[in-house]
Amino acid sequence: MPIGDIFSKLDELNVSTADDKEFKIKLTQIKKLGLRIIGVPHLGFRGRASLILKFLNKIEKNDLVLDAGCGYGFYSLTLSKKWKEVYALDLEKERIDELNKIIKTRQEFSGIKTFEGSLTNLPFKNNFFGLILCSEVVEHIKDDKIAFSELARVLKPNGYLILSFPTNSRNNKKEYKKFHHERPGYDRKAIEEIAGKNGLFVKEIKYYEYSLGNLLFRIHNRFSNLVLTALFFYPFYALFILDNIIKTGEPNGQVVLLRKK
Prior knowledge:
Elements: E1 12-16, E2 22-26, H1 29-38, H2 43-56, E3 65-68, H3 74-79, E4 86-90, H4 93-105, E5 112-116, E6 129-135, H5 144-154, E7 155-166, H6 170-175, H7 188-197, E8 200-208, H8 211-221, H9 226-246, E9 253-260
Parallel strand pairs: 3-4, 3-6, 4-5, 6-7
Antiparallel strand pairs: 1-2, 7-9, 8-9
Helix pairs in contact: 8-9
């Protein structure tokens, strides 16, 4: 199924983006059908999510999982299909409230437990989770070293941590403040240094959204008409994926798989 089709089960979708765009969408039957066929028509999100899901498929599904900085819960809802217990935590009460509304709509989401809290002070005991997912969060946190330390603290030995965040690219150095990021991103050396200080090691890093992909994202993101957005999504996405293979210029995003020693 296309990434994001899970939202087709809802009647309303309220979301906001890092650049302060807010969307309140009533999901008619036609829009629900569109989500089932196309998924979420967002190039950056889809490129990132596809890599995260590939990493998740490599991990055994028999342990507690934390979605750290869950937002509106896309990954929590997706993880609940295979993991029995998913802990979803976010700093913003509004997003947790929206996720709770979604959880109440379907029995299949009953394994999701929600928490309002900060990554710099996680309300969980040491060595608690076998898997932690933290997507597009740490770049927003001023005290990121504390956040990394907390994520490592609550992760079990031999547990997995999946992180996604921007690379320290020239493009991100120009634009990071637009998205309320505390820093442009991280390079491999910085990631390995952070990992080593917290008893983690890097297993794999996947990059996405190179120069052409970034241009495609900018163009597609300007479409305001939902029909046009849907019609042009897959042609644009095909080129976006091709760019990930060709690798034109610097990548702007990365997904990192780490493991605790």
